[in-house]
Amino acid sequence: MQDIGVYKQAIDRALAEQDLPKSPERLYAPINYILSLGGKRLRPVLTLMACDCFGGDYQKAVPAAMAVELFHNFSLIHDDIMDQAPLRRGHQTVHYKWDLNTGILSGDALLILAYRYFESYPPEVFSALSQLFSQTAIEVCEGQQYDMDFEQLEEVGKDQYLKMINYKTAVLVGAAMKMGAIVAGVDQVQQDLIYEFGRSLGLAFQLQDDYLDAFGDPEVFGKQLGGDILSGKKTYLYITALENADTNQRATLLSLYEDGAMQADQKVNQVKALFEATGATQAIQKAIKQQTHHGFSQLQQADLSEQAKAHLADFGRALMSRNV
Q1: 3-class SS at 187?
Q2: Containing domain of residue 71, as a range?
Q3: Per-residue pLDDT for 225 more than 80?
Q4: Mean pLDDT of all residues belonging to the chain
């Protein structure tokens, strides 16, 4: 098994070696731009890692990993359009740098290019990868729709929220790992176990994001804390706080979320105090541990060497202990 950096280098090299057409420039320049902005490359790295851990040649999983990375960036372009976001990774978003129509079309092209990466595999592998990819893609779209629907709802339940982040975030992490297992040639049982490990990590990862947005270290986090609070997002923290609050706490929390005139720092601090007073902070940390534990239990059942299990478990622990 390789160091994480080796997998990331393989992805970076494949991205650099892409030979996209030069024309029409306004279609392909935005694609090159979004792919050049970097990022953790978490999902494609997991594809290579899973393949390697199951005894496959991780280099053979690079096309599948590239499909995952291109799909992820397609979703980012369209998410930024829907969120009207001006910045992505500290740079202008595609639709701000060019225009809305360019963002839509370049995102569409990225999705199609992602599918083309499966063409290098033999028919049975191509079929398994493309079926998984299509199912995952529609689930990601469903998750995004649930997220937008929540903006119109006064209240959202925890089960609804977990379903939304499962589709919007976690299923792509699970699929990325399952693709590596498919390329390695392992059976369906092993594919499903590693998928469930990845999906659970994805859920824990998103819950950790929710927590860090409010309670991260501002010196490390790199941006203003409380972005979800200021934008009125119904996160796990908010939903749990509402469920646990007494009458006065509930009224205060709802009032704070509706108050658009209050100074940002004051609003964030008051909401965070309510999160702590209602036990929402303890609840989200418990949920993160539960999802991580479930993922590790699936990993232990997989037909992997103890070294491979330890390698994947260490990676999962590193994700859950991050500060950014």
Answers
A1: coil
A2: 1-186
A3: no
A4: 93
